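Ticket #4471: structure output looks truncated?

Reporter: J.K.
Steps to reproduce: submitted the chain below (124 residues) through the standard prediction queue, then opened the result file.
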Amino acid sequence: QVQLVESGGGLVSAGGSLRLSCVASGRTISSYGMGWFRREIGKEREFVSAISWDGGSRFYADSVKGRFTISRDNAENTVYLQMNNLKPEDTAVYYCAVDTVSAGGFNRHYVGYWGQGTQVTVSS
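Returned output as attached by the reporter:
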């Protein structure tokens, strides 16, 4: 069992930055791929970014490439999402996820656990 708790969301003006954190407990996540997703009101949850167990592979949705950076600190059992140059269309609830199947990689279809989400609101 893995519990994921996100934090760092909030209200920011367009062009601003936020850093989301996802702290895992119950089991070490050092051997698992981790990801971030988001859901806007009335829409499906969408993939944002993912990172392999060692940080060697990172993936981003086209909409956030060049603006968002995913990273992890396995010693702290934590994954981060640095979000820069935020846009109003980035407004959503952001969720952390762990892939407990893919032996260190990340496949969005193999998410074993989700966090409860943190709200990010970007004003224009």
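Triage note (M.O.): checked the attachment and the full token line is present. Residues 23 and 70 are 14 Å apart (CA to CA).
Status: closed, working as intended.
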